[in-house]
Design a protein that fits this description.
By secondary structure, the protein is of the alpha+beta class. The chain has one domain. Helix content is 38%, strand content 25%. The chain contains 17 helices and 22 strands.
Length: 445
């Protein structure tokens, strides 16, 4: 029996005690920095619990996917036929092909999976630029680590939470070191190194940025938070707040960058000059786009892959194809419960729709509308379920089974931690009445 299921049973056996603690936790979250769009994040009381075997699976999943990712990005740089499969416009392609001069291909990402148990998982999508939610995980796990239901199991288990801020500072430091070494630059002491966290201020996670800034400063760096519109470029160097920037931690999502390309001419000039270390480079858009999974299942592209890579894709990447006017809608309507559609280049689950949420007539109409836009259609992955409790309309706790997505943070190519979302609907996100779960790794005492 899973630990979460045991926790649910324990709560239901002594509901009044745990209800009191649940309400205490609710107040703690309301007064924390676990904020999304200005409001406390919706959360679940019982953490998502993983063990050593789960972590081994996460590391293996990232290793397998990073092998495919690095091969794909390498092919994009060398093969015009591969570039045509992605269909990026000329301005974006120019930025993607710029050198980045550090060793790792994807400095930071959050690769989302449906996780079914050791060795069993399906990738949902890869968030490779602007990956976020570290602060939600940090704040919730700090609170849930002290809740009563975790305390009830501490005699049998040791609970550990992931640290996602100072570990990123260390990873960025290693990436910057490889950059200076590869370029033959004398590295500066940390106290003279200026790190800029860059995003449009009207789009950014301001609280999370402040926490990252604090972590950089605590480890000896200078750190500023900068809107790309406020960056100037002189002699190839990017400058903000009167400081020459040594390293950019890019939180600016590529879609936002391209949508507002004409608003940031100096920033674009600085990217093209290649005199500032940009972590991560715009080439991460190759895997950030939803079209990446589509390309992985394209016969033309698969000829470039080895048997191990093909086997990994077939086992762990849902079949994906473009939703176009040539699509067979009858087949898609007949199998609507097995399908999901996604816009190629949005984020935060915007525009994602699952066939099982619609009648056949509604689904057919939706497909007809979206085939005129830039959408992909994908196999709907099996549910990844976990037991938890919910606060009902009668003011009581009741058992409930939730669908989950496990986000795997990757720092400098390595597994760094998890971010878990849960929901009762076919789409799991904050836009679809979703919840955030703290996550912990347990070992038996």
């Amino acid at each position: 029996m899973k630990i979460e299921t045991k926790m649910v049973e324990t709560i239901m056996d002594n509901q009044s005690y745990y209800l009191e603690d649940f309400l205490r936790v609710k107040d703690a979250v309301s007064n924390s920095k676990a904020i999304y769009k200005g409001q406390p994040v919706p959360y679940l009381y019982i953490p998502k619990i993983y063990d050593k075997k789960d972590v081994e699976t996460f590391k293996s999943a990232l290793s397998g996917m990073m092998d495919v990712v690095e091969r794909t990005i390498g092919l994009y740089k060398t093969e015009a036929s591969v570039r045509r499969l992605f269909g990026f416009d000329n301005r974006l392609e120019e930025l993607i092909l710029l050198p980045h001069d550090y060793d790792v291909t994807v400095p930071m990402g959050r690769f989302d999976i449906f996780y079914y148990g050791p060795g069993e998982y399906k990738f949902c999508e890869l968030n490779a630029d602007g990956a976020s939610a570290m602060n939600e995980e940090k704040e919730l796990s700090a609170i849930m680590r002290e809740n009563a239901i975790v305390g009830a199991f501490e005699s049998k288990y040791d609970f550990q939470v992931f640290e996602l801020f100072h570990t990123w500072v260390n990873a960025l430091g290693d990436i910057y070191s490889s950059y200076t070494q590869n370029r033959g630059i004398e590295p500066k002491p940390k106290s003279d190194t200026v790190v800029a966290i860059v995003d449009f201020i009207d789009k950014s996670s301001s609280i999370e940025f402040e926490v990252f800034k604090e972590a950089f400063i605590e480890q000896g760096y200078q750190c500023i938070i900068v809107d790309p519109r406020n960056i100037k470029t002189m002699d190839g160097k990017m400058i903000a707040d009167g400081l020459v920037i040594d390293v950019i931690y890019r939180r600016l999502v590529t879609k936002d960058l391209m949508d507002r390309y004409d608003e940031i001419p100096d920033f674009i000039q600085g990217l093209k000059a290649c005199e500032t270390c940009v972590v991560g480079s715009v080439k991460t858009q190759i895997i950030h786009t939803k079209r990446f999974f589509e390309v992985l299942h394209t016969p033309e592209f698969r000829t470039y892959l080895n048997p191990e890579q093909l086997d990994f894709i077939d086992r762990h990447v849902p079949f994906t194809r473009p939703l176009s006017i040539e699509s067979d809608l009858r087949d898609y309507v007949n199998h609507k419960d097995e399908l999901i559609i996604k816009p190629v280049d949005y984020y935060a689950s915007k525009g994602v729709c699952a066939g099982r949420d619609y009648s056949e007539a509604e689904w057919a109409k939706l497909l007809e509308e979206k085939m005129k836009e830039d959408f992909i259609i994908q196999s709907y992955c099996p549910l990844s379920l976990v037991d938890n409790v919910i606060y009902n309309k009668e003011g009581k706790l009741e058992p409930c089974s939730f669908r989950t997505i496990t986000g795997l943070f990757v720092y400098n190519g390595e597994f760094a931690g998890t971010y878990v979302r849960a929901g009762l609907n076919a789409i799991i996100s904050g836009l679809h009445e979703g919840y955030t779960m703290s996550s912990m790794v347990v070992t038996e005492k």
